[in-house]
Amino acid sequence: MKQIKFCIAALVLLAGFGFVRAQETQVYQLNQKAQWGNWKIPPGTIQFNPDGSFTPVKFETNINAALSAERFTHKLAGNKDTQGGIWRVGSTAAGSRIRAENIMDGDPQTYWKPDPNADLKDWWIELDLGRVVPVTKLRLIFPDTTGARPLREFRIMGSDGERRSFQHDLFFYEIIGGTTRYNDQNDIEYQLAPIPDIGTQVLFENLEEPQTFATTYRTLQYIRVRIDSKTEDAALAELEAHTFGYNVAPGSLERGGSILDKTGRGTDLIDGDFNTSWSVHGNAEDPTIWILDLGAFVWVDRILQLGAQTTGQDTKGSSFSRVNDHRLLSSDGSLTLTGNLDFELLHDDNDKSSKTDFQYIMGRPQAIRYLAAIYAGANGNMAELMIIPTGHAAGVELESDFIDLGNFSGDNRAKRIQGIFWDADLPADTRIEVSTRTGHQLTEKVDYFKLDGSPLAGKAEYEATNKYLRGETDTLIVAGNDWSAWSSPYSDRDQFLSPNPRRYLQIKLILSSDRPEVAPTLRSLGVDFTDAVIREVEGTISPRVATPGVPHTFTYKLWGDFAEPTTFDRLLFETPSRVNLDSLEVRVGGNLIEPSWVNSTADSLVIHLPEPVAQAQDTVAVQLRAQIDQNPTLFNAFVAQSARPELWQQVTQPKDVPRAMAVFFPVVPRDLLSNLSVQPHIATPNGDGIGDWAEIRFQVFNVDSKPEVGIYSLDGQLVRQISGSRGADGFHLYTWSGKDRSGHLATPGLYLCRVRLETQAKEQQLTKTIGLAY
């Protein structure tokens, strides 16, 4: 495993100037569990480690469902909520260490004992798993110590939790295990017999290495142990209900997922309750469809569709206890070209026989975020959809709350974010993606509800509702209109990608893996920032179109957001060529001013203003003359303060003017090279200072590739490869001193100067003659 530290810094070095990062950098960092409390984390998808790091949760298979029973709640008759755990108990002996809950605590050293003074009819205990579970095996562990001995004669009964009467919690129980002779064992297991009429399919099976898979189960929610004979010190330490794995379908909505179907009863499929069901009435013309978003990306090991009747007598009619004749599809969240979810067919079932349950075993785990089914010719009543994952979650998305950098630093002002960094362990085939968005404003959003909790469209509909039917309102803090979209994921080479500076920041993390057995671990995440020169400064350039290779006069306008009192008095422009200072004009608020200092280089222009710009109406307009040779050519600009000369803040384009600082060619040139000239036509390298060098000048359009310039004899033999660079006027300048490759003066005569430029798309050469005499 490799440990990787990423650091993505903002623009801190400007070519040719050596500007460095400001010294007053502050850091907002998260590296402890408590610091992630305000983040939106899909429940049950992240496992925190003792050192404060976290990893996508690992879903174990072949688990004991009794250990998690208390984590689930469900409805009793009369719509009462109850929690899983010990459902009922006939009697319990006195004692501080003797409790009914001991049979589901995972500790074989603790136990439950019935009251020895109670009648035998009260020697029983019942466990509620909190949801319906496909139980593959029951295991009873007994203590064997002074005062606590194994049960000698008993029966185990189970129910799927479906009520026999709507008004009462009366269930049908069947015997699923028990003693046939006097028990003398401390550990007994009961492999449960399969439900009749299960349709099992193994998908993605490895035919080269055949595997065997567990396929039998009984759907249970309540498990009752009844003791059939009194014995001294009878006790039960653990009642275990083993199942294939953790069913992630019931938590889909809490994780931010959804289930869509036209009946409006789709949630009945994922509530873990056999008393609710989803009806199928499909035909080829109008198929019944559901689409489930799990709210997380998981490696799925098994999918179960449970019919409404699996045990006991059929109260709904046999025609409504099958879910056959359907197509099952999955998606990892990828989109088609039309923007719809790209689903893959998992299985096409056209079995016309009556099946109560369908189970799909993946053979090898499949990464799934969305699951869908289409019923084109079936009638049925499905009680539950179960999705059993394995290994680490395939992908988990976390989103921060609004991070107030102004409040964090104590001055409530906008900040210039210099970089975002994180420390992570990334095993092979794992990734961590980081994206950001920024803004200046937060606003309130009010949600309105009816008394029954159903949402209303807005304030008008709420006020139009009878006041006795109005429910609560919920006020949320949301991003304002000035917030940016989410940035592209960062890499270790990017600068900070979101608009900057800003006061507020949000961060989105995606932890993902291509294999279920591995996962990334995030140790820490941080942002470094400093005070902004100004809350925001925007700019545009005109004209937006100019002929390449010809000097043009451009006007660059920029203006500031002075909602937070500040000033700037320095300007920096990145230019495509050296600016002619004779044509330079600077205006502030429409008034022509004389800069206190100006410096122009081949690719930049720096201006010091005599007075700071301190108010919004003081628009700065700089008229400069330069020539372009790239399409488009960007005129980036920056502002600074004399008090902090090392901190330059980039000018941004207005939101309603795309590419406002770019100048384009009127027509894209067909040629890469143009305007080749050689001066003088005949070089005379005799040391008299006249004509000792031949200057080769040309222009390169719209590419960054480096040209090759060589001197050749008339028969095509290379005499010398020469070097040069782009000059301040935009032309490339190369020189030849008359020497050949060996460093000696070439023979007097006529030669060819050849300029060659090659790109992936095309190649071009220009040639001129050059004479040599001395």
Would you kindly provide a brief summary of this structure?
The chain contains 2 helices and 56 strands. With 774 residues, the protein is mainly β.
Helix-strand makeup class: mainly beta
| CATH homology superfamily name of the largest domain | Galactose-binding domain-like
Our measurement of the CA-to-CA distance between the termini, rounded to an integer number of angstroms, reads: 69 Å
Helicity, as a percent range: under 10%
Oligomer: single chain
Give the CA-based shape.
Answer: elongated
Strand content: over 45%
Computed CA radius of gyration, to the nearest angstrom? 38 Å
Uncertain regions spanning at least 5 consecutive residues: 1-23, 310-321
Describe it for me?
- The chain has 774 residues and is mostly beta strands.
- The protein has 6 domains: 2-57 and 396-440 and 482-531, Jelly Rolls, CATH 2.60.120; 62-197 and 213-245, Galactose-binding domain-like (Jelly Rolls, Sandwich), CATH 2.60.120; 249-392, Galactose-binding domain-like (Jelly Rolls), CATH 2.60.120; 442-479; 537-663, Immunoglobulin-like; 673-772, Macroglobulin (MG2) domain (Immunoglobulin-like, Sandwich), CATH 2.60.40.
- Strands 6, 9, 10, 11, 14, 15, 17 and 18 form an 8-stranded antiparallel beta sheet that branches. Strands 16, 19, 20, 21, 22, 23, 24 and 25 form an 8-stranded mixed beta sheet that branches. It has a 5-stranded antiparallel beta sheet with strand order 36-37-43-39-40, with no helix packed on it.
- A hairpin with a 5-residue loop joins strand 3 (46-48) and strand 4.
- The longest helix has 6 residues, at 459-464.
- The protein is elongated and about 125 Å long.
- The two termini are 69 Å apart.
- Mean pLDDT is 88; it is low at 1-23 and 310-321.
